[in-house]
TrEMBL record:
The keyword Membrane applies. It is found in: Cell membrane. Belongs to the DoxX family. InterPro entries: DoxX, DoxX-like_oxidoreductase. The chain crosses the membrane at residues 26-45, 97-118, 130-151. Its main location: membrane. Keywords: Cell membrane, Membrane, Transmembrane, Transmembrane helix. It is a multi-pass membrane protein. The keyword Glycoprotein does not apply. This is DoxX family protein.
Length: 156
């Protein structure tokens, strides 16, 4: 490659970088919304008490996990709070309302789920890799906040 080729390549990379940088606020909003949709798909079956994946009753499964695996008291009440976080919290996250608080609560939930699932890392059969990833994504959202396209930004 000649010096002129390298200069042209550098110019092309700079142009693409500048264009992508302009899209960053929109892409972050999309990331936040998709994260919320994924979370919502886990909360809605708890609300409706319908089957979800291999769970016939996700709400009962949450109560069982909290009570028998984690050994926590008030399992039914804690499962109800998890269901609220995964539905109402997910909707709040999607619109960017109370973003940092909701994302922090989700990160805490993901730590608890990761603890309950133990040190297994299978890509199938309910491994811990997904709550670990969701937890770190939630922490990123805590640090970043709602972003430009959020209700939080409009309230300033």
């Amino acid at each position: 490659m000649t010096t002129q080729d390298l200069s042209s390549l550098r110019c092309a990379v700079d142009t693409v970088t500048a264009r992508v940088a302009r899209l960053e606020p929109l892409l972050y909003a999309l990331l936040r919304i998709v994260f919320a949709v994924v979370l919502f798909t886990h909360g809605l079956p708890k609300v409706l008490r319908t089957a979800h994946g291999s769970m016939a009753d996700p709400m009962s499964a949450s109560i069982n996990l909290i009570q028998n695996v984690m050994g926590l008291p008030f399992a039914a009440q804690l499962a109800f709070l998890v269901m609220l976080l995964e539905t109402v919290g997910a909707l709040m996250l999607a619109i960017g309302l109370g973003t940092r608080l909701v994302a922090l609560l989700i990160a805490i939930e993901m730590v608890a789920i990761s603890y309950a699932l133990g040190p297994t890392w299978p890509w199938i059969d309910r491994g811990v890799e997904f709550p670990v990833l969701m937890g770190f994504l939630a922490l990123y959202i805590v640090a970043r906040g709602g972003g430009a396209y959020s209700m939080d930004a409009r309230q300033r």
